[in-house]
Amino acid sequence: MRRLQWGYLLLAFAFIYLPVASLVLFSFKDGSLPLPPFEGPTLRWYGEVLGDRRLMAALGHSLMVAVGSSLTACVLGFLAAYGLARHVLPGSLWLRGLLIAPMTVSYLIVGLGLLIVFNQLGIGLSLWAAGIGHVVINLPLCFAIIYASMGAQQQNIERAARDLGAGEARVITLVTVPMLAPAILAAFFLAMTLSWDEFVIAFLLTRFEVTLPVEIWSLLRSGLSSKTNAIGSIVFLGSAAIVLLLELFIFGRRRP
Amino acid sequence: MTAPITIASLCHDFQDFRALHDIDLEIAAGEYIVLLGPSGCGKTTLLSILGGFIVPTQGAVKIGGRDMTGVAPAKRPTTTMFQDYALFPHMTLRDNVAFGLRMRGMARRERHARAERLLELVGLHGDAGKRPHELSGGQRQRVALARALAVEPDVLLLDEPLGALDLKLRRTMQDELKSLQREFGTTFIHVTHDQEEAMAIADRIVVMNRGRIEDVGPPTRVYQRPASLFAANFMGETNRLPATRGEHGLETPFGHLAPPQALIGDGPFTVCLRPEQIRSGTEGWALGSARVGDSAFFGTHFRCHLHCEDEAATTLIAHLPPEVQPQPGARLALSVDPAQLSVFAAEEVSS
């Protein structure tokens, strides 16, 4: 019975991690095709990736878009959540629904929609456009996470701060934001991982300067190569690092 | 610092529901006032109006002679101690207590010194660097008190401050609240639904019911001579006897009674007897004889159910002194001092 349980566990993890593990493994293969049999290991492909200026530029673009769009989405999401949680507004139920609804729309549709709008407005395709696209998909998420953390207890704490003489700006900066820091940081990092990995919107809305997933896709068009495995491993490492940081410093600390 | 409060013909509506009806109240500087009543009686609404969190529909609030009716909480000489304490979870106790002083622009060193003095005063010396989640309920309560007192308010508003504490701690905190209030001289307004707590700490109790004030006065007077049937019931256990107006006074199941107060209206009336007013003996107004049902010993008294041999077969609850030793089944002759009784116009009371 016990063996069966362990076997099941191994199978489940193999199912999840085998693709990633093989990607990472063949990035160390000494040979141009990332297929068995394994030869090597070598760091040659990593050297090529780090020496590839286009890839490195794309990595930089991806970071910029991820950080910028996540920050924007968090600020907007926080303001929306604060307004809706703390003030009685007409039709606030509808406002909340409208803010969260875009989560159900596929990225492809969001991307196409933005493409049409930008074309109509004469806004050129660029990293800015992709960044705006990522704000559109991440804002509902940031709003939902931050809104959920604003309970009645938190509201009373803000009332206490006002009662002790704090104006609205100081209530937000000294009490609300630090008090909700775990939720806000969680929203920020989650938005960052999503933006970091996002392909469809970035592909549709960028032209000359592209993000890393788009660059990888154009590499793949010229066929499989161990180099793509190396860059894929780097991307995976980035996402995994963010998730790990999130777990260690935010979710881990919440349990006293 | 301290200030008197004047509340003049105050009304408040929540949509269609009238939460406060025509409240008039004068509170002297340095008084300890307890607003007492069942949940939904409007006591917390009244406190929120005093704190500036609710603007009343009608009427005015003056604190220290100045009109404060529409003034924001931050600009009032009041601070509120919230029911759930509402401490800042991300700040140390020192920063919590010093927050109000920081808002007033006091330099860091000075405000930290003052915060630490206050923490010492409430018995949390040496804990200034801790955070609220490291404290017990009673300690959090003390921090909330220190934080509210740090800004030297004229009026401190306490919203069921002891509700979350166990009984023993509640008694200790009652004594501490009272002695702190004496020390600071600040006007305290304290909301509770616990009449024992009210009697233990109040200079004056304000009994409230359905948005109206039923009675205002010092604890002894409100307990012994309540102004209304509701106040009589809420302040402690009572025996209620139905009565009608007779030729020479009141007719009750125990016979004729010369009314202890001037009667208002034609009746019917309700006569209220506190359990401890019932004596075994025949002096004063005799209630005839009764059989002891069950009796329970409470240390200072026996609480007994007494089945009376009157026409209505009334059952009374009495607190008899321990030396009477009331055994179940025993017969006792009962009497009360008529001067201690209260008589009200009869009405339906849910106790």
UniProtKB/TrEMBL annotation, chain A:
Gene Ontology annotations of biological process type: transmembrane transport
Sorted UniProt keywords: Cell membrane, Membrane, Transmembrane, Transmembrane helix, Transport
The UniProt record lists the keyword Transmembrane: yes
Topology class, membrane: Multi-pass membrane protein
One GO cellular component term noted in the UniProt record for this chain: plasma membrane
Record bears the keyword Transport: yes
TM region positions: 7-28, 63-85, 97-121, 127-150, 171-196, 230-251
Pfam name, any one: BPD_transp_1
Location of the protein in the cell: Cell membrane
Domain ABC transmembrane type-1 residues, every copy: 59-252
Domain of life from the UniProt record: Bacteria
Similarity comment text for this entry: Belongs to the binding-protein-dependent transport system permease family. CysTW subfamily.
Annotated protein name in UniProt: Spermidine/putrescine transport system permease protein
Species annotation: Franzmannia pantelleriensis
Lineage: Bacteria, Pseudomonadati, Pseudomonadota, Gammaproteobacteria, Oceanospirillales
From TrEMBL, chain B:
Entry GO MF terms: ATP binding; ATP hydrolysis activity; transmembrane transporter activity
Oxidoreductase is among the record's keywords: no
Coiled-coil region: none
A GO-annotated cellular component: ATP-binding cassette (ABC) transporter complex
Pfam families per the UniProt record, alphabetical: ABC_tran, TOBE_2
UniProt KW keywords: ATP-binding, Nucleotide-binding, Transport
Domain called ABC transporter: residue spans: 5-235
Gene3D superfamilies: P-loop containing nucleotide triphosphate hydrolases
Protein name as catalogued: Spermidine/putrescine transport system ATP-binding protein
Organism this protein belongs to: Franzmannia pantelleriensis
